[in-house]
Fold this sequence. Notes:
- This protein has one helix at 54-62, and strands at 11-15, 18-20, 32-35, 38-42, 48-49, 70-72.
- By secondary structure, the protein is α+β, with helices and mostly antiparallel strands.
- It is elongated, with a radius of gyration of 17 Å.
Amino acid sequence: MSCKSCLSAHQSNLNGEVAIRVPGLKGLEKPMVFVFPKLLVCLDCGVTEFTVPERELGVIVKSTAVEGAVVSGEKRPWEKGSRSKAG
Length: 87
């Protein structure tokens, strides 16, 4: 398989850690989702491809946390009870 940008065959599969969020001030109100995809990196031009897993894609589409996804910035819907205070 060759790079879709420069057609180089000099590519490598790597592990990634990516935080995805909506840009701008509106992004501060939306959950940030963390994904840990396999990356296909072109070692000549740097173009990188990865696929967002279905569960995390749901967070992006719905702008709300879903069970099992790693998110920050929003209380998870399944954690609706009050938390006990440390005393």
